[in-house]
Amino acid sequence: RPRALSGIQPTAGSFHLGNYLGAVRQWVALQETHDAFYCVVDLHAITVEQDPKTLRQNTRVSAAQLLALGIDPDRSTLFVQSHVPEHAQLGWVMQCLTGFGEAGRMTQFKDKSARQTADHVGVGLFTYPILQAADILLYQAHHVPVGEDQRQHLELTRDLAQRFNTRYGKTFRVPEVYIVKDTAKIYDLQDPTAKMSKSVPAGVVELLEDPKRSAKKIRSAVTDTGREVVFDAAGKPGVSNLLTIYSALTGESIASLEAAYSGKGYGDLKKDLGEVFTEFVTPFQVKVREYLDDPGELDKVLARGAERAREVAAGTLRRAYERIGFLAPA
Ligand code: AQP
């Protein structure tokens, strides 16, 4: 079976619709065909300041959400990044292979750092995609299921794998990005030209918030001029985004939704989507609470995952260290 690897940050506590439709839904599906490794990337989370107690809690909340969304720890390896020290270790090696200018071209860093003053931007935010490369390469992943915003980071990962292999001999598999086109980028409900992102909270739908609040956000989503419910990403980005979400949550095609709403207005679409979303998140929220009611059991699941992940990660790191010329401990 080919390997899949992906990660999600525990920074916000709740996942949002973009995280789910852009990434985690594919993680669940790939369990059928792949030997999958999924991690809560807490090392990445500290690239911006975190409160220790909140970080610890949000790490469990993230794991609980993954389980509630359908990640099966008996089929996939579910773990916390900091439990596997090889991530940080290979991360250092990858930093030494990355050009300063190359790292500086990462658009996510440019966007995120532009929102803060220079003194608040840590070096970790700059080297974030390099650690991400290590996350992926440690597991010799064939496919990396992510949203469109990660495409550039995946290119860097591929470049670093090739560079290492050229310099030291074939060690890493060069991974392929796995992006599902229809849901690759879910847009902000208040600004449907920008990606839905927890950094800009106004138009974000969170899976763990009160669904009444989500339904209200959906009802007040910015839509477009005109009143026909048709998919037109350039001309009607707001309505198109709602149709994408609706279609992804129900499995109905965009064409059949257009037909169903012909003669109706944006208001009907938004009201119904609020209901569709509520139906989806209500049982999910119950499951998350159940997992969180038994943190001891949850921690055991994560410990088992870390043990399995380490077996693979340690083997890869050992080979990389040898190739580099590090003296093996006697
Ligand atoms: N809007 C989105 N559409 C599709 N996919 C998305 N992802 C994130 N936003 C969207 C995908 O979710 C996965 C986890 O991403 P992450 O852990 O990097 O989450 P994040 O970046 O913290 O989420 P945000 O909201 O995007 O955070 P900020 O505002 O910090 O950038 C990834 O596969 C990502 O592609």
Give the SSE layout.
Blueprint: E1 3-8, H1 17-30, E2 35-40, H2 42-45, H3 52-69, E3 77-80, H4 86-97, H5 100-104, H6 107-114, H7 123-137, E4 143-145, H8 151-168, E5 176-178, H9 211-219, H10 237-250, H11 254-260, H12 266-293, H13 295-324
Parallel strand pairs: 1-2, 2-3, 4-5
Characterization of the model:
It is an enzyme of class 6 (ligase). This is Tryptophan--tRNA ligase. By secondary structure, the chain is mainly alpha-helical. Helices cover 55% and strands 7% of the residues. It has helices spanning 17-30, 42-45, 52-69, 86-97, 100-104, 107-114, 123-137, 151-168, 211-219, 237-250, 254-260, 266-293, 295-324, and strands at residues 3-8, 35-40, 77-80, 143-145, 176-178. Strands 1-2-3 form a three-stranded parallel beta sheet. Strands 4-5 form a two-stranded parallel sheet. Strand 1 (3-8), helix 1 (17-30) and strand 2 (35-40) form a beta-alpha-beta unit. Helix 4 (86-97) packs across helix 7 (123-137). It is globular. The chain starts with a strand and ends in a 6-residue tail after the last helix. The mean pLDDT is 96. Adenosine-5'-tetraphosphate binds at residues 8-9, 11, 16, 18-19, 22-23, 146-147, 149-150, 185-186, 195-199.
Number of strands: 5
Determine the fraction of residues in helical runs and give it as a percent range: 55-70%
Largest sheet: 3 strands, parallel
Elements, N to C (H/E):
EHEHHEHHHHEHEHHHHH
Strand order of the largest sheet: 1-2-3
Subunit arrangement of the protein: single chain
Mean pLDDT, all residues: 96
The stretches of 5 or more residues where confidence is low (pLDDT under 50) are none
Bound molecules: adenosine-5'-tetraphosphate
The general outline is globular
Annotation field: number of helices: 13
Q: What is the beta-strand fraction?
A: 5-15%
Binding site for ATP: 9-11, 18-19, 147-149, 186, 195-199
Binding site for L-tryptophan: 135
Catalytic activity: tRNA(Trp) + L-tryptophan + ATP = L-tryptophyl-tRNA(Trp) + AMP + diphosphate + H(+)
Subunit structure: Homodimer.
